[in-house]
Design a protein that fits this description.
The complex is a heterodimer of chains A (about 110) and B (about 110). In chain A, a hairpin with a 5-residue loop joins strand 7 and strand 8. By secondary structure, chain A is mainly beta. Helix content of chain A is about 0%, strand content about 55%. Chain A has no helices and eleven strands. In chain A, strands 2, 4, 5, 6, 9, 10 and 11 form a seven-stranded mixed sheet that branches. A four-stranded antiparallel sheet of chain A has the order 1-3-8-7, with no helix packed on it. Chain B is mainly beta. Chain B has no helices and eleven strands. The radius of gyration of chain B is 14 Å and the shape is globular. At the A-B interface, strand 4, strand 5 and strand 10 of A face strand 4, strand 5, strand 9 and strand 10 of B.
């Protein structure tokens, strides 16, 4: 099976712009979670989607949003970018619902905000 | 909300020594505790996980212990090798309506010198 893929891999934006990142889960996986990784804060949970519904949301401002399509692919959007949004954005997929299910990570999208 | 504390933040050992990383979590409802290894420039990879109905799990040189009463779990690596050098993250499940969100510790940078 192909692993989790993310596009684009690298992105440079300026403050105030918006950005959309994409994540394709492992075939058959229905859950997609998004994480922000920064050197100081580690991996922070953004949100999780399952069958096109957001099930969990972390403590991020409303500028961060996401959605999931019927084929389980997911996108996240960040509006009005700030310098502090520069980070590696990782998505992870898992096969089913349940809080004890292994998550498989994608390679990430490196976002730089200038 | 759920919080995971991880110690130490850096750990240096000689090849062949053992390494121990410790984590504590705050939500007594958490029931899944994975450990991820992230090499420089790569995605996090699951190395071992433990569920709340088990106190200890071992896989070759790696073992994890869980103390649910104390809300504490640890990663033990024996006979360390230079290729074990990486950042290690512990995580605890966020048990909110059967979601699969994980709350991560801030990571431990392990350096194994030969």
């Amino acid at each position: 099976k192909a692993g989790v893929t993310q596009t684009p891999r690298y992105l440079i934006k300026t403050r105030g712009q918006q950005v959309t990142l994409s994540c394709s889960p492992i075939s058959g996986h229905r859950s997609v979670s998004w994480y922000q990784q920064t050197p100081g804060q580690g991996l922070q949970f953004l949100f999780e989607y399952f069958s096109e519904t957001q099930r969990n949301k972390g403590n991020f401002p409303g500028r961060f949003s996401g959605r999931q399509f019927s084929n389980s692919r997911s996108e996240m959007n960040v509006s009005t970018l700030e310098l502090g949004d520069s980070a590696l954005y990782l998505c992870a997929s898992s096969s089913r619902g349940g809080s004890d299910n292994e998550q498989f990570f994608g390679p990430g999208t490196r976002l730089t905000v200038l | 909300g759920e919080n995971v504390e991880q110690h130490p933040s850096t750990l240096s050992v000689q090849e062949g020594d053992s390494a121990v990383i410790k984590c504590t979590y705050s939500d007594s409802a958490s029931n899944y505790f994975p450990w991820y290894k992230q090499e420089l420039g790569k995605r996090p990879q699951l190395i071992i996980d433990i569920r709340s109905n088990v106190g200890e799990k071992k896989d070759q040189r790696i073992a994890v212990t869980l103390n649910k009463t104390a809300k504490h779990f640890s990663l033990h690596i024996t006979e360390t090798q230079p290729e074990d050098s990486a950042v290690y993250f512990c995580a605890a499940s966020l048990n909110n309506q059967a979601g699969t969100a994980l709350i991560f510790g801030k990571g431990t940078t392990l350096s194994v010198s030969s």
